[in-house]
Amino acid sequence: MTDEIQKFDDSDDTVTNSSNNRPFEEVLNANLSRRSVMRGSLAVAATSFVAGSSTANAFGWSGLKSRRGRSLVNFTPVTLAEGNGPTPSISPDYEYQVLIPWGEPLEPGGPAYSWPPTAEDQRQQIGIGHDGMTFFPIDRRMQEGDYSDRLFRKHWGQGNRHGMLAINHEFGRNSTVLGKDFPESLDDVRTSQHAHGVAVVEIKKQRNGEWQQVESENARRIHVNTPVRFSGPAASSELLKTPNGNIPLGTVNNCSNGHTPWGTYLTCEENFNGYFGATHNKATWTATEEHERYGFSENGFGYGWHVFDRRFDLSDPDYKNEENRFGWVVEIDPFDGTQVPVKRTALGRIKHEGATVTVGKDNRVVVYMGDDQRFDYIYKFVSAGDWVEMRANGVDPLDEGTLYVAKFNEDGTGEWLPLTIDNPALAARFADQAELLTFTRIAADILGATPMDRPEWVTVAPNSDVYCTLTNNSRRTEADAANPMAPNADGHIIRWRDTEEHTGTNFAWDIFLIAQDTHGTEESFSDPDGLWADPDGRLFVQTDGGQKDGLNNQLLVVDTNTKEIRRLFTGVTGDEITGLAITPDRRTLFINTQHPGNGDPSVTNFPAPQDGVTVPRDCTFVITRKNGGVIGS
Ligand code: FEO
Ligand code: CA
Ligand code: CA
């Protein structure tokens, strides 16, 4: 593996925040507890907060359906001894099926998988780098209505055998996608670009119990060259226009996701910087402050797109500002294959991990988002009004509202700091809200947000607790209350509860789990990333990084009452386990393996039989409980 290609793996690991926002340094001392229990006296809405010896009790969490004395996780776990090797392991109480590997046709009858793919075939095939995804049930009532978790639960039992699966294709190494480390032509670049983006497929459970893709009016690939449009406060900004007037195209490095109450999919652009470089005028190109804050560099991560596609050449004056068109949350209608994807600028421009939507006070939508880089921040967006009324008035709820960034205080309280141009400190730096949003990270630096240990996924539990994975940060040299490990090699999970049903500006928080504490036990995990809180009080945790105790990356289920952890699934050597989508009855779970074997056939050929030759392929797993029960139980 060359140094350039190695950067694919390191893309989250650099530090671009030099703002020195280290608000805790002066208040910390060497005796700081690694577990910050709720010590705040903040009179937040969550009046059940009681300082206590157990963080679970501190949150007053009783579990929505917890049965006295009975664990929420009762399956037989995958053991340390089993959770490794070139093929997956699953709890003996569960089984899995492989679905939509990279390169399969989008619909029956499409171009069949062959390796390496042509650009034209890849455009009509499942992409690579399977990541965040949502299952949208096809059922009359679901299509009419509301996809908030609340309504989703109300419709349990509907649309459990048929739906649209919207799935992100985050990235694929050139060596895997092209069969070579560096593109040799624009055609090679197009193949790589078509392997990125999003797929929307229609899937159906067959009579034999297997899920399959079916023909669909609305199945589609959205990739790096698909026309898109901008909406929200920055939509008409000059910062999003190029001198040659090319229309906005594409989405890239689609990491985690979200879904809205109105039934659309949100795909999030994470390490977009790595696809740009400076080639044709590189002698005169210098990185601006904005470029540096977002990690742009002369060679990018080694994809080489900028060498053959001028759009990705930072030094090409015709395409000035093209880079500002990435780093957004993009809304896709999974039920309309003709819809033009919309980049929602009100949600800010960061390295978006995900966009977790919940409905808060006064029916306003709230979107929680992590910016996955060492020492970057956690954000939330609150819509200006009731989302139903806004839509009835022709206003998109994701276009008007307030974006906030989180500041975690040492005493277990926190504040959401509004990123608005009426703040004099921000008005002194930015001409208008559009510029502020285009360079959201710099605005957050100015306000003194709390630098975190790589914020990944966020999930909202039914009792309103919000959980966020902080995957790791090996470069942290000083602990603070919210990031209590220095260095933080293995990550942790933080939890908070907002005032005013997610819409307020204050919160109380604690540390839910520290990964290192599990090492050497059967509960061992590191590098938490994917995250989902189910309606019963279980937390599904996926990992992406070097696991300890000999494990491959994994899917764990945690009882949030007791913090008991059980291992449901382990992937294959060299992969990451990511993506969580579930049917309304919670009897079918979809997860993904990404970059199995890191693309090396001598490590694994999964999902093909182990033949030492066939390239391993990213794919989805359909997981069911053998007794037909709720997943995680
Ligand atoms: Fe794409 Fe931060 O994981
Ligand atoms: Ca991730
Ligand atoms: Ca990750």
UniProtKB/TrEMBL annotation:
Signal peptide: none annotated. Gene3D superfamilies: YVTN repeat-like/Quinoprotein amine dehydrogenase. Residues 1-22 are annotated as: Disordered. InterPro entries: PhoX (IPR008557), TAT_signal (IPR006311), WD40/YVTN_repeat-like_dom_sf (IPR015943). SUPFAM superfamilies: Calcium-dependent phosphotriesterase. This is PhoX family protein.
